[in-house]
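Working notes for the structural subgroup meeting. M.R. asked for a predicted model of this chain before we commit to crystallization trials. I am recording the input and output together here so anyone reviewing the notebook later can reproduce the run.

Input as submitted:
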Amino acid sequence: MNRYTKTALFLMAIAGGGLFSFAGCGINKPAGDDRIDGDVGMAGLALTLPGGAILNSVSYQVTGPAGFSKTGTVDVSHSNTLSVVIPLPAGGPYTLTLSGVSADEALSCAGSTMFSVIARQTTTVSVHLICQEARRTGSVAVNGQINICPQIDGLSASPDEVIVGKSLALGALAHDTDAGPSSLAYSWTASTGTLSSPTAPNPMFTCTAPGPATIKLMVSDGDATAGCADTQTLTVTCTKATATLAVFGDWPYGNIIDGAPGFIAQVNADPDVELLLHVGDIHSGSQPCGAAYNTTIFNFFQSFADPLVYTPGDNEWTDCQKTKEFSSGAPLEELAKIRAQFFPTPGQTLGAVHKSVMSQANVFDAAHPEDAAYVENVMWEQAGVLFVTLNVPGSNDDRLPWAAPFSSPAAQADEIARRDAANSRWLAKAFALAASDGTAGVLIGLQADMFDPAAFAPGGDGLSGYDALVKQIATLTVGYGKPVLLFNGDSHLFESDLPLADPTSATGVMHPVGFPVPNLTRVTVDGSTNFHDWVKLVVDPSTPAVFSWTRVNTP
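Returned structure, recorded in token form:
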């Protein structure tokens, strides 16, 4: 609060006079009165106002002996001085109090002083006025309202990859703790494609162009405050209606490794190929296992321009204990090396361009957390077909006894049991997903030739280790009722057949299936020193067979 100090009052008493007067510029008496009575004094007051301030009126009060009191108001609305004359008996002491408020009520002034009136003498008195500004603060009434903003708990897309023209189901989970001020409102948008109902919690999304589509959801509870609505995004993949793959395996072997750069260049130059599938065995069964060689093959894989999916064969881990491979490594230790180098990021392919796939390391049966070890088992959907790979090596599914110094029947039996169980659960999951997503076909990629006549013949490695898997494939394929294509390597000679269509055929009797499976086709790729061609596979769900292929000669 500001205060202003003024010295603005003088009093004058004249002997024999009879008036008390205070004035702004001097002493004033009533007009025409020049007398000064003997027992009456006269006082004059001058008041200087603050700069720019205007007082419309000033109130005064004079108090004195024997209860003397005199009050009054002086109109100063038309003057910058204060002047008034009142009768005042000689004597004292007297107290004079002045007060006034400026016209705009911005200033409030007050002051007082004591004095005495002496007959026939002039007494000068100063009054100290203090002016205070009115308070400039006010108050506001606030009515607060608390709102807890909504929250999106999760988004889903089932499946997360479909071909152009097909639809997938979107789903959202959201909550609003205080259920207000309005019910939850959903707003979906998509970078491409169409939504069946942009305001529904669970709309359908239809792909209209190949490539990734970013789906965004905003959930609001009616509070328009910026930042209160919650948003989340997810990405789905719209694939072409057809797909072309390069499928090969048992490569590169021995001295044919010198031709690897030419083969890689040939595949990279093919404008149709968009993905590669390697079905295992990255060196021959007469080569030692080793990290340096694995690195060479890894670098070859990374030289392919398109994503490459690789499933291990037997030569790079199961057979490393064999004397034929110079007893170069313990099987499980070599498998761990393969996983570390070729599967460093679960769910991500090799190749210069990476593709996201489902890995058993990330999507395993919660009741069997041990399945997470099988990072090499993957699946994905492309061009309306589900693809799945399994770690199924040759050598009768690793049942040929491990040689010294790595012989360990208990460890070997445990390895087989754990891997076979994980494979079985992964395969069942693949067919269940294919059925729920309405895919047009299923492709299985693995290394072992489970219908190899040389292994089935007396003295061969045997095929009994695959009986349970073949029976499961047969059962799931018949139940699925659509084309299923099995790709394998291992035996190195191209073969295309329907191995279980006739239970009494040469291949039909190799495993105890006992019922026909007409919709299962098997292709064995050329490999090893017979690697003179690779398979160019076309996937087209619009055709009855879904799968078709040609053999392309290597350079």
